[in-house]
Amino acid sequence: MNRIFRAGALCLALCVPVFATTAIDLNRGWFFRADPSQIGSHAGWQKNLPAETESVNLPHTWNLGQHDNYLGEAWYFRTFELPKSAAKLHVKLHFGATFYSARVWLNGIEVGGHEGGYTAYSLDITPYLQPSNYLAVEVDNRITQSTIPGFAMRGSEGKPMWYDWWDYGGIVRDVSLILSGPVEVDRQRIRCRVQEEVATADDRIYLENRSSKSERLVARATAFGPDNQAAASKTLAVLVNPGPNDFALSLPLPTPKLWSIDHPNIYRMVIQITDADGNMLDEQSDTFGVRVIEIRDRHLLLNGERIRLTGIARHEDSAWEGLAETRGTMRYDYDDLKTLQVTLTRPVHYPQNSFILDYADRHGILLIPEIPVWQFSEAQMRDPKVLALAKQQMREMIEQAGNHPSIFAWSVCNESDTSTPGGIAYFRAMRDFIRGIDPDRFVSYADDNLTKLRKAEDSAANDADFVMMNQYFGSWHGPASALPASLDQVDRLFPHKMVIVSEFGLPGIFGKDAEEADRMRVKIIEDQIPEMARRDWIAGAIFWCYQDYKSRRNLRPGLEEGYVDHGLVDEYRQRRPSYYVWKEMNTPASLEGKFEQASDDGPMNFTANVQANTVERLPSFPLHDYRLEWDVRDENNKIIASGAQRIPDLTRAQTVAGKLQPLAQTGALRLHLTLLSPSGLMIAENNVDWHRSEVGSKPGAVRNAVPTKDPGGTPAAAQ
């Protein structure tokens, strides 16, 4: 176990093992100071702690509170100590993300930097370490036309325009020290092949040999199944030369447990490196899943079964943490997204925190991650610096996230000039680059100008593996009534391509106030989901957006900054009426029930019918191993009967029947039905009320059973 000892406000002592890579948390005990006059490096802040600093912990952004709208340079400082036992170890300084660009000094020496605000990086600090160390990090959140994200120059007529979210500066994700010995496993690249009843996990291992000579080592790979039991293992003798090395091995996985929406089975691959005498040199593990994702006849298939999915985009943003999110905020939001039936998301315009990727893996959410090329002009997309930076960010994202089974495609830009020669060239260059490092996944991008095309060849969408269409009919793109014809036009333009509607929704500025805007949002949801579902070739639809988010754009008149009214919840996660409409319309199954009584003094019977959505609806996907639970309560809310039934396969409607003993003194009943996924998530629920007829009617007659979506309460007594 790694242990952290604190010695004073800025000091850290480390206890490390003699082998195997170890991560040491450096999130606490930092100092911060903004540098609007850019004097820090000239004043020697990289060597000595300046006055007037603030005490902070990481992750941290300065764009909350006192420095809310500050653009420019700011500094972070920290000290730590290394024990003598760590003197022979190799040490890297790892940043989860710094927005936007960073320079790093250790003991007054600049040790490296990074450009790009959403991907991780590590710096080798071994040569610069001392027993007591002073760390200084300069972060700059300013952007230009050639940064990513950068000014949104598409259609701006040369005037720099902000992208549509906030430029939260800071060390916005975790920081740690990575300590290792002379041999370190850097990462694994795990991909799976499935043939009949056997899967094969192909693993390429990347490691560093820091000795001055070649070494004959032994690599042992063990794949642990979802039950955490060893499923397969393999041992391989390898010759590693000084410097970086990589080698490949394959493990058969008999009768694999496939990853799917309902059963997100996760495997774990453990790599152990030993010397010829069996001494452990390093150990590294990563998770992966076994699944087959195909696009066939304009349909999306997961493990051979057709799926049509819906979901919601979400910015990494909150009023209390900004981009510097903690796990609690991320978990709360994604638990809520699962409550909202999310099975597909992009998730937003930039690479995500690793926590979110792990969550999607373990909760059955398909992802299309994207780099933040947002509304770029043709000139920007032709810029060699932009292309090089886009490739860097895409490579970093793929190398860091590529083993996640939830990811099925990559997106290279959003709403940019992709219907120009320069935009088409950019997409082709990025597509070919991605196929060179991750050939097993699809490549696309989000386009909001498809309906303006005269022919498919005028757009980079013609070269994408599938089409991603942003549509805002009912607001930006024209009247809501124009949506059907626009979808049909996309069908004619791309008759052989699957389409995912990558954004739809309603920005609040199109309503006179927030209440009217949400009523319009409800109308968009109610009308457009069925309209999209009618088109067989639309495999998914993603709503924009889960929550209101901070921005300089799309605000009401007179505001230069604020929260964009675009969410099902506001920036404080308060739910709007549209939240409940979305949840109801996106359940993948329906529940119905009824009471029946043949005679006044006879037993009361009830039936419950559960039906999975057919492929004519959005969403629809196979439902396996679900569970129907029910209870019956009287007018005093007392449970008088309950039960449950497992439903192995919901390919056709299922009926559950029950019988209650005669209830002569009972005036009202409520049947409560819930459908639970294999993980226990409530997918659908319904209530059916019964009460005796009004005075003057035949005693004991059954009045109409009334289904209601209200999940709680007590059944009303006879009137």
Topology of helices and strands:
Elements: E1 3-6, E2 12-15, E3 22-25, E4 30-34, E5 54-56, E6 73-81, E7 90-95, E8 101-106, E9 109-115, E10 121-124, E11 132-140, E12 175-180, E13 183-195, E14 198-209, E15 215-224, E16 230-240, E17 243-254, E18 267-274, E19 280-288, E20 293-296, E21 299-302, E22 305-307, E23 309-312, H1 327-339, E24 344-345, H2 354-363, E25 366-367, H3 378-382, H4 384-401, E26 409-414, H5 421-437, E27 442-447, E28 467-470, H6 483-493, E29 499-504, H7 514-533, E30 538-543, E31 549-551, E32 562-564, H8 577-585, E33 589-597, E34 604-612, E35 624-634, E36 639-649, E37 654-660, E38 668-676, E39 682-691, E40 706-708
Parallel strand pairs: 23-30, 24-25, 26-27, 27-28, 28-29, 29-30
Antiparallel strand pairs: 1-2, 3-12, 4-5, 4-6, 6-11, 7-10, 7-12, 8-9, 8-11, 13-14, 14-17, 15-16, 15-18, 18-19, 20-21, 21-22, 31-32, 33-34, 34-37, 35-36, 35-38, 38-39, 39-40
In what range is the share of β-strand residues?
Answer: 35-45%
Give the count of helical stretches: 8
- Chain-averaged pLDDT: 92
What can be said about the biggest beta sheet? 6 strands, antiparallel
Structural class: mainly beta
Flag low-confidence runs.
Answer: 1-18, 694-719
- Taking the alpha carbons of the first and last residues, their distance comes to 66 Å
Radius of gyration: 29 Å
> Going across the major beta sheet, what is the strand order?
5-4-6-11-8-9
Helix content range of the residues, please? 10-25%
Please provide the count of β strands: 40
Global geometry:
globular
